[in-house]
Amino acid sequence: MTAIDLSIRAAAAEIELIGVTKSYDAKNTIIPPIDVTLRPGEFTVVLGPSGCGKSTLLQMIAGLERVSGGRIVIGGREVQDLEPKHRGCAMVFQNYALYPHMTVAENMAYSLKVAGVSKAARAERVAKVAKMLGLADFLERKPSQLSGGQRQRVAIGRAIIREPGVLLFDEPLSNLDAQLRHDMRVELAELHRRIGATSIFVTHDQVEAMTLADRILILNKGRIEQFDTPKVIYHNPASVFVAKFIGSPPMNILDVTGDGSVLRLADGQVVASYAGKGNFQLGIRPEDIAVNDGGSIKTEIRYREDLGSHEILETKIADQNLRIAMPFGVEIDTGQALSLSFPQARLHLFERETGRAISGAFGDAKSQSAAAKEYQ
Amino acid sequence: MSSESSLFSHRWLPALLLAPLMLLIVLFFYVPVFQAFYWSFFLEQPFGGGSEFVGLQNFQRVLSDPEFWGATGRTVIFMLTASSLAVVVPLMLAVAADRKIGMSYPARNILVWPKGIAGASIGVVFAFIFNPFVGLMAPLNVLFPGLWNPGIDGTDAFVTLVAAHVWSGIPFNFVILLAGLRSIPPTMYQAAAMDGAGPWRRIFDVQLPLIMPQLFLTFVLEFTESITSVFALIDTITGGGPGGSTTLLVYKIYVDGFRGFDLSGASTQTAILMVFVLLLAACQFFFLGRRINYER
Q1: Which of A64, A83, A101 is closest, CB to CB, to B190?
Q2: By CB count within 10 A, which of A38, A297, B36, B53 is most buried?
Q3: Structural fold of domain A250-375
Q4: Is A91 within 8 Å of B190 when comparing Cβ atoms?
């Protein structure tokens, strides 16, 4: 790449949410008080299942939804009572929300027009953004004459043309097909590097979260389950919820009981040694399970899925589902007996009552703080 | 398409089902229209008994009559004021109703009921409402004697007519326009809000352009309706007076034809009015209709 055009560049703002909460009435609390700080220029992905409050959170930051309590500070200014236009945010919507009666150029320039920017200056900025997004040939078209990917670009262009300090994305890729989604992901990452605005990206797609985010904020019923780098979240999930949400196929979670020296499944098989007593949940990723490696855990294959690059074996131990990811080409048939072992260093232990992770349970080096340091 | 033809395997069955309606349309629309055009070229005896072909003499007579031009001018003024108001007032109501729509569903239902009231009934009601002695304006007349009297003042009578027409047009146009507004996705407003547009700006930049099809429909219907359906209002409220100040073309045709027994003159004016309405609708489609060229 030669001569990157840096003229569209935002003064990234820090975003602080202090006790921000949302409830529609006394009974229905969408978001209990949340405290979180997003660094200037950081790309944060808010990840969670539908109905977890992630879109509501975004709309409160944008000013499209009132907060029920707490403060939102953007770039050192308290904004929770300000109109959207005074917050310095721009937003890309899930269904693009382009104005159907305006051309691409008019769509992108609308915010400038409202702000009273002169016609010549508007045209100049539109040309610059259009070139950056590869839309230069489509400026006179109406949105209905564009493909999904092009519409998405127009929506992004409309958001970045004012060089906002904060860019908000509300599931912007969910209407695109798989190939286009991948391409747009790459483009978005590239764009973020060039523009540098503090970005919040809401999605339920863990792949988008893992690939785009500097840090992922995982929401469950409005509460923050974990807020950390993709690496830490993948390798050290803070809870069973996170462990099940990240990874494809997700982490296996098994109910185990500790007797003070080992962890046993319900049928008595020993799966790991651990000094604690009580009821736990043991997590292991499908790709971390060692098969036919002299392991002591016995099971048999119930179903196999060939995914080309690897295959997924479905098994059951102690009446609990267990998935194993295997490199392709391993000669195992359905119904065949397997012996498994769980490498101690790859295990995750959670309290069964709360679902919270017990960090350092297996005494290895990959503790939460160590992994977090990698990022900072 | 094959499924449709298999449903109606009898060729004459659709025709048979259509026949009663077609008969009505032909008997009560096309025959009178044809008759009016036909009579406009003949001198018709008022009590029957033969007619005489006179060519364009009827048109010459009508077009040189200052009363015809007076009525036409009043018709155009009425069309412009009454139909504009009959769209703009419901538009304002619809924009307001679209903001807070707690009861919008029953409200839409209730608001459309007045559509079912006959023009003559509306006329009688408005004649009372605007009566200078017992109506709404009566207290003002006590304070400023002679301020309001549609029985004497032509302008007052005209205003009464416009008010009655606008009132009768509100329900239908309100429902159409509100439906248009409701079909705009809420994210459109959110996007405009993010772009910095305030509520007023959003009305003019987003809402109105996006309900153009509905606005166009209501305007076309209103323009034609304001010319023809005003008859019942005039007949019940003003009777064309005072001094002919509310004699619009459609009322003049009735008076000429059925009071003055000038059947040929009335037919000629009817023909002219019909051509005018047709041209008007065609112009609207030509100049406005083609500008509504976007898809949601």
Answers
A1: A64
A2: A38
A3: OB fold (Dihydrolipoamide Acetyltransferase, E2P) (2.40.50)
A4: yes
Query: For residue A284, what are the β-bridge partners?
Result: A252
Residues in chain B within 8 Å Cβ distance of A98:
191
| Contact assignment for B210 to A100 by CB distance below 8 Å | yes
Across the range B100-128, mean pLDDT stands at 73
At the fourth CATH level, the homologous superfamily of domain A15-235 is P-loop containing nucleotide triphosphate hydrolases (3.40.50.300)
Q: Do B196 and A85 touch (CB under 8 A)?
A: yes
pLDDT of the residue at A10: 62
- Give the domain ranges of chain A: 15-235, 250-375
More confident residue, B241 or B234: B234
Residue A10's alpha-carbon distances to A89, B172, B225, in angstroms, are: 11, 50, 56
Structure tokens at B239: 């009777």
Please state, in angstroms and rounded to a whole number, the distance separating the CA atoms of residues B180 and B212. Answer: 9
pTM attached to this predicted model: 0.77
B202 to chain A: nearest residue by CA? A114
* Res. A6 pLDDT band, cuts 50 70 90: very low
Of residues A310, A203, A303, the one with CA closest to residue A248: A310
Question: Options 3.30.559.30, 3.60.40.10, 3.90.220.20, 1.10.3720.10; which CATH number does B79-247 get?
Answer: 1.10.3720.10
